[in-house]
Amino acid sequence: MSRIGLNQAAVWLLPLLFVSLFLAAQTSSFADGITPLAEKVGHRLSYMKDVAGYKAQNHLPIEDLAQEAKVLASAKSDAEKLGLDPATVEPFIIAQINAAKAVEYRYLADWLAQPETGWQPRPLDKVRQDIAQLSKEILQQVAQDLKSGRFTSDERSSFFKAVHEPNLRESDKQQLFIALLAIRLVK
After folding, report:
1. Domain check: are 51 and 80 in the same one?
2. CATH code at position 77
3. Quick one: which of 23, 28, 99, 126 is 20 to 30 A from 109 by CA?
4. CA end-to-end distance (rounded Å), the chain
5. Which helix (H) or strand (E) holds 121?
6. Which residues of the chain have pLDDT under 50?
7. Domain containing 1: what range?
């Protein structure tokens, strides 16, 4: 190919290259939209092994209604400060609490058949502090994402892939995702 032919090809290929790069960047940002939030939700659920272990060692029940009420009240207060409608955040918080309890119960069931050896749960008060901090970060991410116009049912598979906890079922993820889609900003 002559030098002129190469220059003409470059004139046509350069704009195509820029368009391709732009579309790739856009597709990547849309595809990753819910992933940081989902990873935080998954990280929060990863603490449930410590919670279940501590409760099992100390003969405490999985369900702690007083703690659940504190978590819910704190989350609704944080949501309001972030510009989220607390009434629409409540089902999401309840879904997180229910998923957490389900994971804890599944750990207990597994340990009945085969006790965990060589592992000790972290102290419950320390774990709860970490969970509380992560819960605030989750709500901050929700507010940030909603202000950017995110969350569609098309993001379900990305959410499901990013929320991976061994004792979490697809039905638990579905409840979390449905509740997440219902969260709204304060009008």
Report:
1. yes
2. 1.20.59.10
3. 126
4. 62
5. none
6. 9-31
7. 1-31
Alpha carbons 101 and 106: distance in angstroms, whole number: 9
* pTM of the predicted structure, to 2 decimals: 0.81
Whether residues 63 and 142 share a domain: the answer is: yes
Q: What DSSP designation does 34 have? A: S
Query: Per the domain annotation, does 186 fall within a domain?
Result: no
Domains of the chain: total: 2
34-38: long-range contacts, CB 8 A cutoff, minimum separation 24: 34/145, 34/150, 34/151, 34/155, 34/158, 34/159, 34/162, 35/158, 35/159, 35/162, 36/141, 37/138, 37/141, 37/142, 37/145, 37/159, 37/180, 38/158, 38/159, 38/161, 38/162, 38/163
CA distance 49 to 165: 10
Residue at 187 is within a domain: no
Which pLDDT does position 26 carry in this prediction? 38
112 & 74 share domain: yes
Gap between the Cα atoms of 132 and 155, Å rounded: 26
Domain-located, residue 77: yes
